[in-house]
Amino acid sequence: MPLHLEQVAWMPSPPLAPDDGPIDLAHLRRMTLGDAGLEREVLAMFAAQTVGLIGALATLPPEAGALAHTLKGSARAIGAFAVAGAAERLEAAIQNGEDPALSLAGLRDAVAEARADIDTILHRS
Predict the structure, then answer these.
(1) pLDDT at residue 125 is higher than 90
(2) What is the DSSP track for 22-77?
(3) What is the model's pTM?
(4) Percent of the chain beyond pLDDT 90?
(5) Which end of the chain is more exposed for a tag (fewer CB within 10 A), N or C?
(6) 115: which residues sit within 8 A by CB, 6+ positions away?
(7) CA gap 26, 79 in Å, rounded
């Protein structure tokens, strides 16, 4: 007897951007296979990377779209989904020839929140 779709139990997909805070720690744990040392290392690297990328993006150089794309991927990898979304909006604004000022401001805010969360995480005993 064939299985019909209505007979299959519906399972919701996990949200793409959980609202657990600036860093989705469950996602980060999955990505680092639960290695707490690696989690801390990845978070520190991301925090340092964002300083350079936000600084470079401030002047909206010709490669700003590529920089935003890089930040989007890094943010998704560690579970900084608000940063990833803001970087994606900036990337789209640049690609569409729109004024990127508002998107850049949103990205700065999202990065500041993520970095504050990372600082808290890294300074826990």
Answers:
(1) no
(2) SS-HHHHHHHTTT-HHHHHHHHHHHHHHHHHHHHHHTT--TTHHHHHHHHHHHHHH
(3) 0.82
(4) 82
(5) C
(6) 47, 50
(7) 8
Question: H or E stretch including 88?
Answer: helix 81-95
The closest of 90, 109, 82 to 27, measured between CA atoms, is 82
- How confident is the model over 97-107, as pLDDT tens digits? 999 999 999 99
The answer to whether 63 and 54 are in contact (CB under 8 A) is no
Per-residue pLDDT tens digits for 73-98: 999 999 999 999 999 999 999 999 99
User: Under a CB-based contact definition with an 8 Å cutoff, are residues 106 and 83 in contact?
Assistant: no
| Other residues' Cβ atoms within 10 Å of the Cβ of residue 121 | 18
Contact 53, 107 (CB under 8 A): no
Q: How far apart are CA 112 and CA 14, in angstroms?
A: 26
How far apart CA 91 and CA 48 sit, in angstroms, is 21
Q: Which long-range contacts link 37-45 to residues 24+ away (Cβ below 8 Å)?
A: 40/121, 40/122, 42/77, 42/78, 43/78, 43/118, 43/121, 43/122, 44/118, 44/122
